[in-house]
Queue: 4 jobs
Job 1
Amino acid sequence: MPRAKESKPEINLHDPTLYFSRELSWLEFNHRVLQEALDPRTPLLERLKFTAIFSSNLDEYFMVRVSTLKEQVEAQVSRLTPDGRTPQDQLSEISDRLRPMVTEQHRHFERELRPRLAEEGVHILNYMDLSQEQRFYLQRYFEERIFPVLTPLAVDPGHPFPHISNLSLNLAVFVKDPETGEEHFARVKVPNILPRFIAFPDELRPYNGQHTVWSGVPLEQVMAHNLELLFPGMNIQEYHLFRITRDADFEVQEYEADDLLLAIEQELRRRRLGGFVVRLEIQPSTPKLVRETLMRELGLTEGDVYEVEGLLNLKDLMSFLSLPLPELKDPPWSPVIPTRLKWVGELETTSERGETETSDDFFSVIRQQDLLLHHPYHSFSATVQQFIMQAAIDPDVLAIKMTLYRTSGDSPIVNALITAAEHGKQVAALVELKARFDEENNINWARRLESSGVHVVYGLVGLKTHTKVVLVVRQEGDRIRRYVHIGTGNYNPKTAKLYTDLGLLSCREELGADLTDLFNFLTGYSRQQSYRKLLVAPVNLRDRMIALIRREIDHCNNGKPGRIIAKMNALVDPKLIATLYEASQAGVEIDLIVRGICCLRPGLDGISNTIRVISIVGRHLEHSRIFYFHNNGQDDIFIGSADWMPRNLDRRVEAVTPILDTAIATELREILNILLTDNRQAWELQPDGEYVRQYPSKDEAEHSAQTVLMHMAMHPTSPTDQPPA
């Protein structure tokens, strides 16, 4: 009698063992950043840059993520994350994983990068190694330029322990009164208003006949060796450098705030003072008494203390990128203008009133065909910025509406909106006041825009407006036409040179109508629940993405191929991850290009063995989001502002657009294929959570996706980037 076919046991796709920790996954991303600093193939000053970025990233991580976990522990929160960890579990594992990284970073800087810099004529010196002449120079420098700025703060019964500001470098100083024999403790802040590294003049630079580009000493060492001027009549016993990090995250009670702008301004003032301390960085030589004093006064435990060998606050190394040493940097890159836009005349001041005008029509290019922009390979200033600037002065443009999440301090785009309002156009700007660490900048822009007649709104209560969209309404003959820009990155000319982002310029009626509805949702009262083409969070984005994944599952179940490629900054959402696991079990081939956090565990037999995850870390920060679904040969491809994270899908306003132009869809597939074959900057995620760097095989050439894309921008072959007929 034939044996009955055994059914496979059902797998619980919400099992915590199938998910990586969000916090630990972020640490792995920052470890990949550190590896760029360690990689000898990376130019020397670029290695210094990645060292600085690693430190800067950690500062924000402690200010926001670690501080949140500590608050949860304090509140006795025991809720488990999807990976099955409590807040205390996460803090313990963060400490265990991070300490070796920090040790590796500082050891590499002291033993490898610092000597290599000296070989190239860049000498970051220690005070103890200076000549007498150099010391005399620094003493005069201290007296004239540093001493007047300093404020020593005593700690005794009459002087309570001072407030230590966030991210500040400080000297803990012990002095002895020669008359009474009493020892006293004082704190001296290293002022961040002064240069971190004090350079010697030319006549004090040469070393043993070597060519010297720069030589100098850290500011804190100059201060430490001249303390007697701060404490006259006292004997300096010892001094020790330390640095603290405070909680800098805040929540505004939006429902209780009568004025959101004023409420955020108040919270910014609190942030400047800083919340509770979350990290203390000291040097290993710091005596036990000093260590314990600082821990007690700052309310810390041993788990909050990080010992650092050598210089503290390595993010200040970024200043050395300005040295005139091009051979120690990446080859320079100048973004190009897409061929279809090169014929558009540059803006010239021609009117009698001195106003900026143009004789050529930027909009006619968009009317001919949708245009894909890929920054920083394509110039931001000559495309997106020019689009908004021309709209601002075009007499046929009736209205401009756009979202501003982060922009630069001298934004020409904001100035263009002001110009448009002054020309009598209807201008609406949604300025997101809650963009973390850009709140103050955005408040300043909001006030200036409002004073110029721009309609400024601050978004929706309980939601951040993260979407990147522009809507231009133009009168053309007897009809109204709407032009749109839908992007993946901020309207920031500075970061547009550093981040990879995509943007779509189009005048398709359905996209224009959708953006009109979206802006009405953002600026007025609306419960818009359906859009013609756009996928919008928190309305329908997660559900639509899940439906697109399930469609690939259905194709596989019907004997057809299933294929998904998704590029994003972070993959955290448990519902989408579980659906991707289902797709893999059905046989869908899935490639994920996730720069940062990835909580999905790839390569698990019977669960995710058809899923591959790579991360690309290179000279440009990978920031674009692309979502591709094969759909049995009827490809669907999308770009937009949202990562697959609960915050993006539930607590932010996001917009993702389908690509309706077949030539652009082909171009995006080519970009995805180039990224997937990177064997220079790519790392592949393993089932155990480790990332393995990709190298070319013996018969392969080195293939950097970003280098290839730069070459393609210089030599375009895409039919969407050809001159107009």
Job 2
Amino acid sequence: MTWEVEINEIRRREELAKQMGGEERVARHKSRGKLTVRERIVSLLDDNTFHETGAIAGKAKYDENGELIEFTPANFLLGTGRINGRKVVVGADDFTVRGGAADGAIMGKQIYAERMAHDLQLPLIRLVDGTGGGGSVTFLDTQGHTYIPVNPAWDLVVANMERVPVVGLCLGSVAGLGAGRVAASHFSVMVEETAQLFVAGPPVVKYGMGQDLTKEELGGIQVHRSSGAIDNIASSEEDAFVQTRRFLSYLPSSVWQLPPVEKSEDNPLRKEERLLSVIPKNRRAPYRVREILQMIFDEDSTFEMGRYYGGGTLTCFARLNGHPVGVLASDPYVNGGGLTAESSEKIERFVDLCQTFHLPIINLVDQPGMVIGLPNEIKGTIRKGVRAIAAIYQTKVPMIEIIMRRAFGVGGAGMTNGHGLNLRYAWPSGDWGSLPVEGGVQVAYRRELEASDNPQELLNQLLERMESVRSPIRTAEVFGVEEIIDPRDTRPLLCEWVQDAYALLPQMLGPSSHGMRP
């Protein structure tokens, strides 16, 4: 006597589960240019590494003899696999079964995926396609009662933000709790054309708000490219998986580990001649900050997040001699690189991400300060700005500041903790103060200018007199800036610094004193 019969029955049900919502629904799903849930998992993970948990969970019907006559698998798959050799947890919606809604769900599976990532201290990737278990009105008809909503596993969702890297991929029309599961992540990606994201879909919005919109108009990429709800846009599902793998490559598997250091073929002593002239002599002229990143960090090692939200601030991962780091920089082509409400929020979230996973931070500063004017006052920019500054002050990971050009006002002052060691270097293009001389002179000498017979000539004289005083060399004379460096020396200096920074990281392992929020 053996258990062969039972094993065969399990294998039969596993094969039924692989049919997902059935041939017709799968064909309809693929006709929209989307991969099936199982194809997605295969494309995301290293070859032949997926180990599924709960494969035969679903809704079954039996005849009077107890024989299985119908089986519909749960619309959520979970399991473990490997990405670049490292173990991860994957939880994925199957839209071919009840559109990924609670009506086709075994809610324990979704909870188990969160618990597995939490307890095993493994990165979690959510492949979201549907409401993600939020339910529908048909629940009332089938169950005969309603319920006070509780977001399933949300205690674990919140806790995982403090423990392990979490990625949320928006792979279809994602609403309600599904949208929440995408947003409750360290990195979120939305696929162009085939994905939309909203709190509630078009029918609910039409009834509740009187707005008659298509799914794409309500929550497509033209909405979320710059809304801040999503970090990055992907051109295809495969591109979303590539971005996921790159994002995870910079991070440890949990907060109890160090970021993974790779062997670098790029010379740490490399000096780029172009850095000597990359900052224009004309202070009002912008420059391409992303070109500077390529000259400083390891070749092809930068990975940017959230480019179109708070675009005046650039946030990315990069490597220095193989060591992952977080990078903050200003983009002078967007609001002059100044702090807006959106860019402040972006800084706060990114610094907290680096703090959570112990990535040293390099701040390439060209900060004119908080963006002024009525629209920015209406947004409460000052409060958002000081929250960003508070995040910088609260972080304990090693941070270094390279002042490339401007550092003005409250925003410029808050780009590093000026009350600590304040490790910073300036380029000879440095220009700083409470506010730019051009505007400050008109405020400080307003009465003289108003009384002058030739205010423009007087203004020119004052500016000429101030020009020599504003030289960064004058600041260095009184040790107001610790060191002015040749810009070409930036990479060698940072590659030496990152070794010291990583030597300090082991004592910082474990959860941060303030847990990260989405």
Job 3
Amino acid sequence: MESFDYIVIGGGSAGSAVAGRLAVDGTRRVCLLEAGGRNDNIFIKTPGFMPFIPEKSNYRYETVPQKGLNGRTGYQPRGRGLGGSSAINAMVYIRGNRWDYDNWAAQGCTGWSYDEVLPYFKRAEANQRGADDYHGAGGPLFVSDQTAANPASHAFVEAAAALQLRTNPDFNGERQDGFGLYQVTQRKGERWSAARAYVEPIREQGNFAVRTDTLVERLVIEAGRVTGVTIRRGSKRESLLARRGVILSAGAFNSPQILMLSGIGPAEHLKAHGIAVVLDRPAVGSNLQDHIDYVSGWETQSDVPIGSSLKGTLRMAAAIVEHRRKRTGVMTTPYAEAGGFWTVMPDSPAPDVQWHFVPAVLEDHGREKVKGHGFSLHACVLRPESRGTVRLASPDAAAAPVIDPNFLDDERDMATLRAGVRLSHRIVETPPLQAFGPKDRHPVDLADDSALDALIRSRADTVYHPVGTCRMGSDADAVVDPTLRLNGLEGLWVADASIMPTIVSGNTNAPSIMIGERCADFVIQAERG
């Protein structure tokens, strides 16, 4: 049996960080297992090709029918391959709000306050603006300002200012609230995924084995300790030994799936699938949280926004040539170019809605093709009260899990989203965006709660931030403790967005990388006793 010091399951945002940090000094033999491929192609690397990323790099999950969304199934894209979702996302670099992490600490997650996680964000970061009290400049994750944002995106920031909503040049600095252009995880005009940051620079080191196209079927557990994994590559099945431990970083859907396939989870559910129960842990796969999101869309008379027309096609063709030659221009777009954070409910301790402005019309996650030009404005509920689950559909590790975010189950989420959508329309009604001649694609009487709620339930869906299914805490029911060790077994850590007790107020890629950075330190500290 081939053996390693550590096996890391999942080469996504957190897994890449864990594996890279453990392997980089050459003193540990580390194996990184990833179900997908290397993700080393033009469609991944070129930001503007995001709508054309190959299907093999996306799990393309679906939810169960959502009662809060009129019985519709939701779309749940998840990255497959090295980099995970950081290889297919909109590259927006957001950490969340100070309050999020202080609240984790208050809930019993000792060591996870904002002041305690900030050094890990800074350690990961290579911000082109340089180092300061809130940012790092020497890390592996490149964070850049946009250089070719669409004029409509600049107009969005001006439109918010016209409503006396503050302009914020740094959402990750002293204050989160306000509106502005997002910084992005790019380097020299290319996507900079977690794998490019942590894995690719050291993948040829002799102590580091990177196994792609490798499906983890289950953990090997002996006498209360995780000692390895069983994997499948094609039709070949084998086991790998982990002398010191396993780090599970397969994401908010697949980490609980692997735990349950290994006999760790709700006992009755496991028995129903013929899986022997190792640990009865009802919290595994529970506590699913995600940012419910509504996309307002406008067609424009102006052809300045990105769109489908002869002029737009010729402009994009020229942009592709420019990017291939110089790595500059329109093809560096993250699409979600601008946005902001604001408080719309009176009792919120921090901004409760986030906006993403896209200088193009989006329908059904961009899967529906729309002719002409326009822009879209996402509004998402930052701290939803609704909770869902992840469960097994089958004891086959290759089968998709059963995903139920339970969107809009709590009326407070609808109230927040309703207020956010109304503010979206107020922003678009200001002169800077009216100059583009916008026409609402989904008109509604904004003063009518029932009509607005009906529209939201007919069109809302995720903005791709599932978390919480392997919750961290100090209580007996928590899946992992504050050092990310699995409660009840030795030799296993979980490190990804699944460990979040509550969802952060923003995009989840940077926090997932921070979690990976922290886990590597916890593992090294455990070595030292």
Job 4
Amino acid sequence: MTTTVTVSDRSGRTGDTPPGATALPVAGPAAVRRAALRLIRRDARAFALMLVLNALAAGAGLVGPWLLGRIVDTVRAGGGVRAVDRLALAVVVSALVQLLLARGARYVGHRFGERTVARIRTQYVDRVLALPPAVVERAGSGDLTARGTTDVASVARTLRDAAPEVCVAAAQALFLLGAVVVLGPLLGLCGLGLLCGLLAVRWYLRRAHRAYLAEGAATSELAELLAATAEGARTVEALGLQERRWAAAERAVRRFRETRLRTLFLRSVLLPAVDVSYVVPVAGVLLVGGALHRQGGITLGAVVTAALYLRQLADPLETVLLWVEQIQSSGAAFARVEGLVGAPRLPKAAPGTRPLPADDRIDVTGVHYAYDGAGDDVLRGVDLTIRPGERIALVGPSGAGKSTLGRLLAGIEAPRHGSVTVGRVPIASLDPEVLRRQVVLVTQEHHVFLGTVRDNLRIAAPEADDAALTAALAAVGAGWAEELPAGLDTELGPGGYRPDGSQSQQLALARVVLADPHTVILDEATALLDPRTARHTERALAAVLAGRTVIAIAHRLHTAHDADRVGVLEAGRLTELGTHDALVAAGGAYAALWESWHGRPRG
């Protein structure tokens, strides 16, 4: 991972990077089950205790209806008040025991859920940090943000609330149905009335997972579009793209609405069918039980007990079915969170096992590159050697491949064919810590991270002391930092100090000073700044670039005029390479660009 100081828009695309995000993978059902089992095994004792307490609570719940049936039979048999009082007291005790066991089960379940969610959040952050920058940029920050917030929160709610509730309810339902069968097999058959609800649940489950995945994808798409539009508002206004962005937003909102309506329809079928399924078994027990009682096959107390058991089924089944939607939604969310396992990762190697660059020379040899490894090549057979300390400018028309070559030189992308090396070691294969000391990419925008000034600077040099941080700020002319109320401990961002555009860029450039790379790649670092801010930034850049190799992706040719050499890219090929004066004298593509930039068309 290169130390990229800035990004050009919300998705990180610059220059000729193609539009359109590449969706991150979604885990399949089998992978989600394996991941869930791994999480359970991590806290197996708490999970087992939760199951035991649930089973005991469900067993205690059977005692009350059975005792009520005994009360009915005792009264019919002429039993006295004392016998009834003893049974009533037993009912109260059983209810209290059930309450305590159920509360204990929920407490254990909630703690299990919180610990598990913490592991999921940690794993998610680790996996995001392990993604190659190119994957993150092409996927878009909206998808990653939605997965890390909405989806993780949905999984958290399920583990914390739904899982304990469903476990308790499922145990109660199984015990109640078993008790009805024990009271009378024919009465147990009345429980088949629940089948209409189960059939509705089966119908729902076959459709819900896909529907909720579609809803999650639509949410990510809408979040990405809104975030990119808001952050690129000035560019949208400058280029007159309001109508196109509005149309894109309308399409995203329409897809979001359609997916939401689909899940709403599924719920509107499920819930009424379930409501009917609660009534049918109770009515069946009363009819069948009444007939059996008249024939002397069962006591009235047993009929009452069976009816109460089946009536009690409504509560746990209601709990289960109400959480089915949440479980389906969180299952889809978990699939999206767990899907990062299948995304490309930065290669890992044991410390010291990778070769280190022998020197600071950068070689581009026979490079071909196509985005996502498919389609037409953006770069075609590029050869270029950049000597240490050299200043080289890359110029060419829009879409020629300048920014793409810059990304390869920074190690963000790897070539499809050929090689990009520093000191004869492939740049893209370097460990992040090593790469940060080799090459830094400075693009058109900048980012201030939440935290203190010290936190923002130590991203580039975690071991730097305050003296080094202060020296880096002074090198880029950021004297304003010394005047902050808490100095390096001043919080930045919402609720703290908000640096302006020039100050934010100075913080980013101070990180470059701290990283101390031998090569800096500039992709029009001042292009989007106002003239006053640009002047401050250019002065700071001059301090940063002193004594370093500089590769400038020049969209404005005054940058090329001052370079040691100029490389001209056309349709992905390096067609010219030389000094400014030599290329102008040659009368080729660069000369045409130079004359056109100065408003002197060639005659």
